[in-house]
Amino acid sequence: MKSNPVAEHLSQCYGLNDANISLKPIGNGHINTTMLLKADDQALVVQKLNTDVFPAPEKLVENARLIEQHLTKKNNNGEYDLDIIRHVPTIENDFLVEYDRGVWRALEFIGGSYSEDVVASISQAQTAANAFGQFALALQDFQAEQLHHVIPNFHNLEMRFAAFKKVLEQNPLNRTALCQDDVDFCLAQQNLVAELKALDGTIPLRPCHNDTKINNMLFCTKSDNAKAVIDLDTCMPGYWLFDFGDMVRTFCSPEQEDSTNLNNVRVREEIFAAIVKGYVEPLQNVITDAEKQSFWLGTKVMTFMIGLRFLTDFIDGDNYFATKHANHNLERARNQFALYRDILDKEHTLKAILEINN
Ligand code: ADP
Ligand code: GN1
Ligand code: MG
Question: Average model confidence (pLDDT) for the chain?
Answer without folding.
Answer: 95
